């Protein structure tokens, strides 16, 4: 199922994009009203076992059914032309000592989040660079990158407008003397989007949703705080960039809600890879690539036990964030 990513989107978002899904829910007697915020699998999990048995529901085939339904409808409506990039594959190369890497191939699909962990200097950024360059055995690691299962066209390496990869780096320094609105207008125009106003409004709304302190469209970009400019770049990349792959070299914790940032990118169906030293961020991914001595040592899925730890880490993070705010406001700290 190439459009498996549909199962990670909220029902609300699906209905907005594919209004014809209303008929699918009706035909299957699924009352989705009031459950728009859930993904389809989450919605199905809400049924108790009795109801499932009574109505002879096959939950797994319903999930597949939804994906197939969307695919067939899009094809029927002639809307399935170029779906672009739906998966990225990494083929093994060698580590710094020349030994083969500990895997054969890794495939990452749209709306998947993969984190990259490993000691300093182990080769995390090198892996991101291999992907950006669509390595073809021609980088120090000897890795190869496939797009949709094939060796990609070299045009991706040099095209400036329609890039395969968007990079989000730690330092977003704006040098232009523009307001947020003017900056986004420039970008929207270069992309020739149809409803510029609506898109710009959406980006600012989403960015404010991610940033701790709000800013408005008339704020000069040069006076945005670090957190605000990161939030703006993430929202801009998610909503306006056509790049299907987003590479992140660590999202700093200060001033931005990283969980929401990842949810925004995933909701826009990006393939997200991020190198990180932060345990919370590493565990927010669906799977993580462990790098050792320049090679991919193993690939681990984030299991249920780890998700429980993630919840604990989130509590600790919010404790730290709270202390940070209070320190910033000049308070003297005391234990609760
Ligand atoms: N498989 C490899 N073969 C040869 N050289 C490699 C390999 N992997 C990484 N390197 C080189 O090792 C150096 C360190 O790698 P890199 O900068 O990617 O580390 P990092 O994990 O991102 O470090 P940090 O956590 O400090 O950001 C780079 O010069 C990189 O090109």
UniProtKB/TrEMBL annotation:
ABC transporter domain: from which residue to which, for each copy? 80-318
One MF annotation (Gene Ontology) recorded for this entry: ATP binding
Swiss-Prot/TrEMBL keywords: ATP-binding, Nucleotide-binding, Transport
State the similarity comment.
Answer: Belongs to the ABC transporter superfamily.
PANTHER family given for it? Answer: OSMOPROTECTANT IMPORT ATP-BINDING PROTEIN OSMV
Full protein name: ATP-binding cassette domain-containing protein
Give the organism, scientific name. Anaerotalea alkaliphila
